[in-house]
Design goal:
This protein has one domain: Beta Barrel (Porin). It is about 15% helix and about 50% strand. The longest helix has 21 residues. It contains one helix and twelve strands. It is mainly beta. It is globular, with a radius of gyration of 15 Å. It starts with a strand and ends with a helix. A hairpin with a 6-residue loop joins strand 11 and strand 12. A twelve-stranded antiparallel beta sheet has the order 8-7-6-5-4-3-2-1-12-11-10-9, covered by helices on one side.
Length: about 160
């Protein structure tokens, strides 16, 4: 199954929708404008919060936590490297590999694809296609991809 994320290019807070394969709104994501560290809430179209992503402040390397139903299920961390960015996902047994700068990467578990991410070029703003292998992993995979995007943005803003 595929999900599509198109982030608005000029926004004071993160606010965007996630669409399904048919172009219908499936989730919406809202950030908190006045918060200590970045925070994102993922809601279904019935306004039920499905996931929460929170930045760990005062961390040497960018670090984000993913919560589902109020329980922390994953921690996404940018690892200290010099040439190519490397990220780890703790808590799920998932691994990340690919070209992060081109937004062409995948999340795997035991060499099985959980989700692949591709950036759609020549669009106004950032547009990403997520190809999720198992519907049961949908909200977790979406949340992990959003957290990875937050880590990448924090790393590029801080020069890490």
């Amino acid at each position: 199954m595929k999900l599509y994320i198109k982030q608005k290019i000029f926004s004071w807070v993160d606010r965007f929708t996630v669409k399904d394969e048919n172009g219908l709104d499936k989730y919406y994501v809202e950030g908190e404008l006045f918060s200590f560290g970045k925070k994102l809430h993922v809601f279904d179209m019935g306004s039920v919060e499905r996931a929460f992503i929170q930045q760990k402040v005062f961390s040497f390397m960018p670090r984000y936590f993913v919560f589902i139903d109020g329980r922390q299920i994953a921690e996404i961390v940018k690892e200290l490297t010099f040439l190519r960015p490397k990220y780890s996902i703790e808590g799920l047994g998932w691994e990340i590999s690919g070209d992060f700068w081109a937004h062409d990467y995948g999340v795997l578990q035991n060499n099985r694809a959980i989700v692949t991410i591709h950036k759609a070029w020549m669009t106004w703003g950032d547009c990403y296609e997520l190809d999720i292998a198992d519907k049961d992993d949908e909200i977790v995979a979406l949340s992990v991809v959003l957290a990875i995007d937050c880590v990448m943005a924090a790393a590029s803003n801080s020069g890490n």
